[in-house]
Design goal:
two-stranded parallel sheet, 2 strands, 39% helix, single chain, B12D, 3 helices, mainly alpha
Amino acid sequence: MSINFRRNFMKNWFAVEVGLIPPSLGQADDCQQAIPIWCIVATVVSGGTWFMARSAMGPTIQWTKTNPTPWNDIRPHQGTKLLQVQSKFDQRWVREKL
């Protein structure tokens, strides 16, 4: 059953040939087929990089041994979240040093 399913699935599968520079002007359409996948990959990579950088600067991450509990430096009037639904804080917590 899986061999028949795979064969039928691959019958309708179209491979996108990714080329940055077309060898001739007649093959310019091949490069245009890859534009959506390049956009999706670029969006995912940039979003993942932004999320990792933001997570690394959070109050629960310890970078230095001089302050083993950085989350204790947060005051009651400081907010640490990206989106605060229920309350407004006077200040936003910012990491001064790594």
